[in-house]
Amino acid sequence: MTDNYKHIEQYIVTVLSGEASSEEILLVQKWINESEANRDYFEKMQCLYKYVTKPSKQDNKQLLFDVDAAWRKVQTKTTRQRKTPRFSYLRWTSYAAAAIIALLVILNAFIPSKNSKETDLLTSQLEVNQTNEPVLVLENGEKISLRKDTFSLQKNYATIHKKDASISYKSDNQETDNETEEVQHRLVIPKGKTYDLLLADGTHVWLNAETELTYPTNFNGDQRKVKLKGEAFFDVAKDAQKPFIVELESMDIKVLGTSFNISNYEEDKTECVTLVSGSVEVNVAQKGTYQITPSEQLSLSEFHQTVNIEKVDTELFTSWKDNKYIFKNARLDDILKKLHRWYDFSVAYEDALMGEKRFSIIIDREDDLSKVLEIISYTSNIKLEYKDKRINVRSEKLLAVSYTHLRAHETLSDL
Fold it and tell me: 3-class SS at 384?
């Protein structure tokens, strides 16, 4: 290791703590991209970090990594393992840096690709709240930013075409051997974005904000399986020989050809399948298998661990794919939670009971958030104030109006 890189671990720690100078950031960036050995070293340190810190799901979701705690935990482990008092400071630094180097994923913007200006190397731990733009993660960990309007590329016997806010796959090998291992890609959609995906079998998938979908470039086996986190609407291409399976945290949805919506956001604590057409078979872990018919919704509550099937107005759960939200007699708290995925804000209630008040409203994706909040305020005795990406909900004297069913830009008479 050269003199410039003699204390690279310390530089990395400084960068991750947000206290690095521009020179130190550039030094770390240059070191990572200098050789495959450096990248391999980085990946090994990531593994060690996971082992010694074992962060909770909540920590992963919020990306609140406690560097000091990780440092102390590794220090405790290494202190117990000392065999002689000559355990050097440099060796200790290496252990400590290993525990927090995984945080380098936050600095993806500083790591240019060795392949092209459009691609970066990205670890498989990319989360929806680590990017501001949709990202396609390839099987080798490489990421492709979908910020560019149009591009085409060939990967693993498939042609990938990107145009506007959609991406499509077309198989280059119509007679793919069933024994051939499937190559998995992952599409990550952040807050404030939605995306369309056309899979190699012709299945059309609409992905809502804060969603990720893992899927193969080609479906080679006797089934078509994808894995979802977040919310997506599926219009599945019919293939009687290959059932389509969507894998969630606690259930699998099996179909032959149908259209349905799935929502399993972690913060909602509920996994929900809403069927528009066709039929689906839902296998719920430790609960059994259920079949639902059009206009039925199956939900699994994480708190109660109960399965519920009911008739619903499917438009209320699928309208988002048409760039609008339709709410009918919905709780204010539920309305704001959904809007939060399209707009970036936090919420503070003067009284938690205000979140229970119900409204009916249609909100288009292009509507100004302040205008939407103004209309909600106008029809109730609460005031929603939006400032500095924060909505404050407080009580206010009820205005003299006789209607509460509104569109963000017009009155509705048929909700």
Answer: strand
DSSP 8-state code for residue 36: H
From CA 328, how far away is CA 213, in angstroms rounded? 29
Map residue 133 onto helix, strand or coil.
Answer: coil
Number of helices and strands (H, E) in the chain?
A: 9, 26
d(CA 353, CA 95): 49
Band (402; pLDDT cuts 50, 70, 90):
very low
CA distance 151 to 198: 15
Helix (H) or strand (E) holding 336: helix 332-339
Spatial distance between the Cα atoms of 6 and 2, rounded to a whole number of angstroms: 6
Mind giving me the DSSP string for 164-211?
TTEEEEEES-TT--TTSPPPEEEEEE-TT--EEEE-TTS-EEEE-SSE
- For residue 4, name the pLDDT band (cuts at 50, 70, 90): low
**Who contacts 336 (Cβ-Cβ below 8 Å, separation ≥6)?**
347, 355, 391
Query: Is the predicted pLDDT of residue 348 greater than 90, yes or no?
Result: yes
Instruction: Give me 13's structure tokens.
Output: 């720690």
pLDDT digits (tens, 9 = 90+) for 76-110: 544 444 444 434 434 444 444 544 444 444 444 44
Contact 211, 230 (CB under 8 A): yes
Element at 362 (helix H, strand E): strand 358-364
- Is the pLDDT at 311 greater than 60? The verdict is yes
The DSSP letter of residue 413 is S
Angle, alpha carbons 324-325-330 (nearest 5°) = 165
Using DSSP's 3-state secondary structure scheme, residue 327 falls into strand
Secondary structure E strands in 237-287: 244-247, 251-255, 259-263, 270-277, 280-284
Which of 36, 46, 38 is closest to 5 using CA atoms? 38
The neighbouring-strand residues paired with 162 are 151, 167
The pLDDT assigned to 181 comes to 77
Q: Is 376 a residue whose pLDDT tops 80?
A: yes
Q: Which residue blocks in 1-140 are alpha helix, DSSP H?
A: 8-16, 22-34, 36-53, 57-62, 67-81, 89-100
Region of poorest pLDDT, from 112-121, 248-257, 303-312? 112-121
What is the value of pTM for the model shown?
0.66
